[in-house]
Amino acid sequence: MANLENEGFDYWLQWQVPVCALIIIIPAIVAVILIYKSKRAHLSVYDLWVPCWKELNPLWLLIYRALVFVIMFCLLSLDVALHGAYSFYFYTQWTFALVTIYFALGTILSAHGCWTHLKKSATKNEEGDGFLKRGLDESESTTISFRSNKVWGLTKLQIHHERKEIDQRAGFWGNLMQIIYQTCTGAAMQTDIVFWCLLVPFLSADTFRLNLLMGFMHSLNVVFLLLDTALNNLPFPWFGFVYFIIWSCLYIVFQWVLHACGFTWWPYAFLELSTPWAPLWYFALALVHVPCYSFYVLVVKAKNYAFPKLFPHAYVGSSL
């Protein structure tokens, strides 16, 4: 722990500071430029709430997301009740809160999608069929059958790519949900890997004590996201990596601002700037973002490769 006098103006004049700053600023600038210049494929509104399984009723995805939100919100509330606002001094709580927001938004959009479909079915007086669409190019015309059991009044669903519904896209909240999904998957992987592979084995019992709440907050986030990935139909492109980078850069900037305002304790020793090894640590942290996000891209690729072969009549599929 650094002394207060060591974190005055001279602290920020050390040669490590501008080097570490460049390691943060350059990826952040590149990420912002890519976001500004990107022309991504549009997101279908039905990808937000329709599962990737033909026989799975969308209500089950809604129930799963709502249940996970309640569990994560309770855990986060308990952590805040025990430690106060100090909890958000850590990247773990930042990420855990982001995953909680994802499931909250997913619950709302799933409920809205199910409710909209039920209203549409009632208006059209269709007892067995409804219409779900995916985004297609104007020249494409594909019809995919999607059926689910009748549960709580939600009838069989079929995905029909009709011309009049092609342009119906996810709005602001739908795109925000996908961005949060792409961000928190990589961040959750990074949080859990650093915690279980770096902090738990190497920190002494005098400075670090593992408890049940810590264990839950550094494992359930990834478990819940993996289960949601197995159920949802959200695309997971490589482009989402830029949001993950910006998220981590925001956290480090947050820590630097706190220390510039007089805080002297770093929540993670590898963020300390006074050591000559600081640039190496920051560069290593920047590099670890790649395998963390790559892992999740591979998970989605494996899902789309293996599930159609294992369950050819049950799996609809999702796109990268």
UniProtKB/TrEMBL annotation:
GO CC aspect terms: membrane
Transmembrane listed as a keyword: yes
Keyword annotations from UniProtKB, A to Z: Membrane, Transmembrane, Transmembrane helix
Transmembrane segments: 12-36, 62-82, 94-115, 179-202, 208-227, 239-268, 280-299
Presence of the UniProt keyword Membrane in the record: yes
Name this protein carries in UniProt: Transmembrane protein
Protein's organism: Macleaya cordata (Five-seeded plume-poppy)
